[in-house]
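ENTRY TYPE: paired fold submission
RECORD: A
CONTENT: sequence, then structure tokens
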Amino acid sequence: DGSGALAPLPELDQSDGALQAALPAVIGAAAVKDYLEPANLLRRLVVTVDNIPRQKISADKRPVRGFGGTFRADGDELHATLDTRNYARYQPLVAVIRNLDVGALMKVYVRFYPLVQRAYQDLGYPHGYFNDRLVEAIDALLAAPQVTGPIELVRPNVMYEFADPALEARPAGQKLMIRMGTENAAVIKAKLTELRAALTATPH
């Protein structure tokens, strides 16, 4: 109608269509189609943000589809290092994040915040605020160390782990930042810094 009035928010469990209609302004229509899970997107986003500072991120609840290609390690099960070719797997998604419009994202975030907060309370935080947890998650990612040189790996079970116990003990989000390589991580950190400034400047 040209007035700029927004439609009323749907219920949380019927919010996928409205959110998918709003997100192309933030990351582009192709990225929404190529990278985001189409179902239960808000709940997936909330649980993943909540898990970033923890030891595990639930793979089956991620809002983003799996990255192309398979994980590569150089060496054998007794002595391996992270193959730098892994970094290329993340580059298409990192490019989307580099071009993300933080101003447009904040408009969508503020609009959908009541549903985001509901999803967060449903996780078992009746008195918590998702915005606070999001800032904590961003701070955890920004604190990811920049690891130079070969990254040693071990494979005690099915999955490879960092051989350095100090790295392996870090939160899941930080380990992901290490796995994507310093150049990709720098792009993510720059955008997260911009987002953090917007989040902490905007009253909710």
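RECORD: B
CONTENT: sequence, then structure tokens
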Amino acid sequence: NDNTPAPLRAVLGRDLSDVRWRKMGPNLGYVNLYRQGPVAVRLLRGAPGTDTGRHSHHGMEYTLVLRGGYTDATGSYGPGDFQVASAELRHNPVADPGEDCLNLSVTTGRLDFDSALQKVVARLFGF
């Protein structure tokens, strides 16, 4: 047991340390847990110092930090912290130094990245 919260272990069927991450590049990974229409529930992992890319949201984004932490324009978030981001927020979360940042994320619409390349990549990966 690697201290994976019991409800999350029940959904995953395993500990976080045994999850097979889908890569979105060398330092970012994700696991889709649920998707219906525009609503998506994912685990996200970023290596220390990795940024997600500046973006806003077509809908809401709810993020619960499970391990590590990240910092964006609104502040710093660590284990147990919960961030709510509306369509008005443009931010670029950056994983804090030290350990991988693991989050549980719920989005109610696509992300809207500033970078043209990130827009294309986001579409390919269903973000």
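NOTES ON RECORD B: Helices lie at 6-12, 116-125. Residues 116-125 form the longest helix (10 residues).
STATUS: closed
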